[in-house]
Amino acid sequence: MLEIERLEAGYGDVAVLHGIDLTVEAGAVTALLGSNGAGKTTLMSTLAGLIAPSAGRLRFAGQPIERLPASRRVEMGLVLVPEGRMLFPDSSVEENLLLGAYTHAARPMARARLSEIYALFPRLAERRRQRAGSLSGGEQQMAALGRGLMAGPKILLLDEPSLGLAPKMAQLVFETIAAIRAQGIGILLAEQDAHAALKLADSALVLENGRPVLAGPAAQLRANTQVRESYLGL
Amino acid sequence: MSSLLSGQLLFAALATGGLYALVAFGLNLIYGTLRLLNVAHGEIVMLGAYAAYWAMTMMGGAPLFALPLAALLLGAFGFALYGGLFRLALSRPALMKRIEGNSLLLFFGVSIILQNAVSLVFSASPRANKADDALIAFADIQTSQSRLMAVAITFLVCLSLAIALKTSWAGRAVRAMIQNRDAAAIVGIPLDRLQAWSFAIGFAVAGLAGALVSLFEQISPFMGFPYTVAAFVVIILGGLGNLAGSLAAGLLLGVVETFGVAATSANWRSILVWGIFILVMLLKPQGLFGGSRR
Hints:
Oligomer: heterodimer
Helix content of chain B: over 70%
CATH architecture of the domain at 1-77 and 155-164 and 191-234 in chain A: 3-Layer(aba) Sandwich
Strand order of the largest sheet of chain A: 6-7-8-3-9-10
CATH class of the domain at 1-77 and 155-164 and 191-234 in chain A: Alpha Beta
Largest sheet of chain A: 6 strands, mixed
Mean pLDDT of chain A: 93
Number of helices of chain B: 12
CATH architecture of chain B: Orthogonal Bundle
Shape of chain B: globular
Low-confidence stretches of chain B: none
Mean pLDDT of chain B: 89
Distance between the termini of chain B: 43 Å
Radius of gyration of chain B: 19 Å
Number of strands of chain A: 10
Number of helices of chain A: 10
Number of domains of chain B: 1
Shape of chain A: globular
CATH class of chain B: Mainly Alpha
CATH topology of the domain at 1-77 and 155-164 and 191-234 in chain A: Rossmann fold
Strand order of the largest sheet of chain B: 1-2
Distance between the termini of chain A: 34 Å
Radius of gyration of chain A: 17 Å
Largest sheet of chain B: 2 strands, antiparallel
Number of strands of chain B: 2
Structural class of chain A: alpha/beta
């Protein structure tokens, strides 16, 4: 579904990603592992169209997308739930969710999807009129996930969805990811919590200093000595 | 003191305030969505006034033809200026980094060019639309037909803008983009198109304001600067990027200025306006209405 080939990207003159190859399939979770500064967020931002790649190819549903602006990628069904949530803090929770359905394709579905998301996260329904900036971290993550789902994604890019959350809340986020996969949506999941990510994922890619160092089925990576030592702390 | 309670004064205050709100809206829209400070905004008002003067006095058109025409022409000019000058500057990261500072210089240049271009075409001497206005009186208020129409149109447009901002998808997109550009991009809002439309709508509203002014005041190629200043005061009062706040602050400034001058003298006008400005900057630097939305 989403094919990444020899992708390079960075900020200005600073190159961060060096030759990333990866495929994200519909209905599967692909984990993106790596320590802080390994390039996970840069990769996510490049896929979403916030950063222009300096080399390499990106294809989504067979079409080249590396030159498309972020808004066109959302229309096609490639949707980012960014690190730090990036909600609209002064707007209400409901307004944030509705903005998720901004594209012409998603607008007619907005009301129906809104009630689905309120069913999935009853907390958001309770707080629909509150400013998004006043929510707790966990609630903000639900709102960000909900906003991403409002677009009707085919592939969802989840950047550090459990970061800074209490264990119980993180558990809920991972359960939600499994439920999203069950709907046939493909997920690229950047995570620092390699344990939880590898338990959930179908396959994984490990980044170090912007370079892919390991890739394969999640079960295989869980058994890998290097992964066990560096990322699972075993 | 009884003169301060007159309907006449209230009418004058609302007329001035409505106009300030209208002019400041465009400035704040362009600042909010693009982070560009348009110091040529008053010149857009001036161009609108000349467009109406041309349509009415030179071509003999009716005001209800001249007003939309001025808005349309200036809206098109906004599109052209964005496409011709700013799209390029904004698409290059190296230029984008310095855009807030550079935009001041760019717009300053635009301002001087427009003043001189209009002087060249229409001469520098002040002009006025032919007024064969009927006088209107109700209660203790006396005014002319065109002034009443101008106030009615001002409030109608301000109200429509406020409603559109609150309820339409375009309004939602604008408010989202003002809060966070990247977040707006990842929910699928086409930033480039919205920026072009911000220029077009901002200029169209300023052009309309200028056309309204031309109905009852003298116009000149150098009339724009006081409007630029007033608009800047208004958007600081209302909160940079807070569009609803600047509509309210425009009205407030009009009321304070009109009643303040009536209670003291015309010499106090600038002291009052800037006094309030400085007071707000000291006590509530984020603006009166909840502040800057970033």
